[in-house]
Task: inverse folding
């Protein structure tokens, strides 16, 4: 009897693993994520976004707030999420730990463990831009958020970070020459010291598109797009770069090294290429967006490091999941999406859309996703029944 029970449970475990909907990507170090921005009035419901992400096998996302509808929709999906604590909350959160505790309880703890919240981005692009008063409250806010996580016992599960723009640097060419701006450093150094103590990485928003757009006469677009080009040579490190993305990542590593943080990992919190722009926005075309994002995806899939940090696989969140038609600013700001609001792909880089697209015949409907889930369940029931019959035939 004991043997028969053991055999049944063994068979059940084997076929449960075979039929599991969780992607194998969770078992290895991830390198590719996507930013799920929602400044638009025509986006699909969060439940549909989960379906889209699963179809595309995207398992890591960042959102810019802690929208409860989104967090509830992602419950049970297995997709790992970094939530954002928006800039307008920083002053309030910096005042006291109790305020941070209330925010954590309402926006993080309430959704764990069903929703896989793995990080909190405290503010976005604070240092180097925006009002000085936010520079001053960033570190206190970060510390209060971490203290609240510690009091809740989830500090090892939910990581604290704060993404920066390239504006924090005074110089980034060649990569080895990169340094933090003198006016930023008094705020950046203590922030880095705290992140080093708690094991948080350095998040940077790195956009070759923006660099090219601002100086198309002196930057080779092939260098920005991962295409064949002579590249650049960094005489100090004697390293060669054949694409700007890796050069931007290594520039961040160089700046960190200069202020004593040689072991801190750099993660790209945003990168992407606009598929449309104003007449003065050089390079903002569908073809360039397709080329950049396709080549970036291939590069990240290799799970390799940079010339300066070859042993640390580069990880990045692409901006963005959708075009966001309500974003202010130049036309490019509304056209970074990999997907259109109806679920079709904006251009083909190998992802599967949810509806037919003019650019590809590759599609997967919501019914297809549901059918796959039913098929897995059917397989599981079949094998369980088969195991019972087998046990009976063996007289166990």
Result:
């Amino acid at each position: 009897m004991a043997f028969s029970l053991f055999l049944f449970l063994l068979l059940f475990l084997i076929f449960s693993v075979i039929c599991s909907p969780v992607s194998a990507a969770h078992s290895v170090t991830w390198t590719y994520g996507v930013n799920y921005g929602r400044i638009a009035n025509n986006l699909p419901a969060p439940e549909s976004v989960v379906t889209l992400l699963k179809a595309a096998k995207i398992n890591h996302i960042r959102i810019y707030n802690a929208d409860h509808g989104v967090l509830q929709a992602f419950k049970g999906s297995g997709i790992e999420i970094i939530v954002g604590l928006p800039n307008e909350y920083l002053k309030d959160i910096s005042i006291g730990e109790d305020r941070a505790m209330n925010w954590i309880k309402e926006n993080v703890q309430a959704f764990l463990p069903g929703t896989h919240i793995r990080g909190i981005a405290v503010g976005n692009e604070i240092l180097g831009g925006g009002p000085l008063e936010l520079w001053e409250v960033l570190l206190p806010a970060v510390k209060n958020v971490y203290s609240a996580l510690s009091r809740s016992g989830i500090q090892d599960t939910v990581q604290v970070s704060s993404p920066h723009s390239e504006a924090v640097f005074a110089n980034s060419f060649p990569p080895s020459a990169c340094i933090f701006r003198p006016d930023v450093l008094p705020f950046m150094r203590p922030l880095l010291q705290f992140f080093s103590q708690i094991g948080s990485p350095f998040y940077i928003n790195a956009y070759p598109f923006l660099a090219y757009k601002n100086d198309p006469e002196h930057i080779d677009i092939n260098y920005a797009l991962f295409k064949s080009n002579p590249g650049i040579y960094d005489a100090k490190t004697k390293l060669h770069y054949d694409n700007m993305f890796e050069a931007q990542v290594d520039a961040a590593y160089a700046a960190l090294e200069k202020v004593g943080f040689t072991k801190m990992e750099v993660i790209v919190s945003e990168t992407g290429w606009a598929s449309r722009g104003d007449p003065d926005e050089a390079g903002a075309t569908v073809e360039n967006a397709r080329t950049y994002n396709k080549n970036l995806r291939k590069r990240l899939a290799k799970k390799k490091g940079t010339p300066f940090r070859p042993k640390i696989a580069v990880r990045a969140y692409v901006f963005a999941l959708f075009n966001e038609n309500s974003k202010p600013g130049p036309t490019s700001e509304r056209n970074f999406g990999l997907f259109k609001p109806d679920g079709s792909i904006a251009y083909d880089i190998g992802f599967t859309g949810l509806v037919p697209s003019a650019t590809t015949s590759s599609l997967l409907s919501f019914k297809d996703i549901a059918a796959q889930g039913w098929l897995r369940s059917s397989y599981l029931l079949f094998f369980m029944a088969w195991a019972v019959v087998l046990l009976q035939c063996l007289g166990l």
Summary: Confidence is low (pLDDT under 50) at residues 1-28, 359-391. Residues 366-394 form the longest helix (29 residues). Residues 38 and 68 are 13 Å apart (CA to CA). DSSP finds twelve helices and twelve strands in the chain.
